[in-house]
Task: structure prediction
Amino acid sequence: MKRLRCDVSFGDSLLFLLGWTLLVVITFGLASPFFLFSLIKFMINRTVVVEE
Result:
């Protein structure tokens, strides 16, 4: 059986959120619609298929 496992550490997620928060503040909120797509891409890139 195959399962998906997301290997995201606390430090990775903290840096990601800190970077996007800074970007949203600098652009006065113009970057906020793109945050969701970037978050999905971030999680997909760190997801692996595990065979049990």
Summary: The helical segments are 10-26, 32-45. The first strand starts at residue 2 and ends at 6.
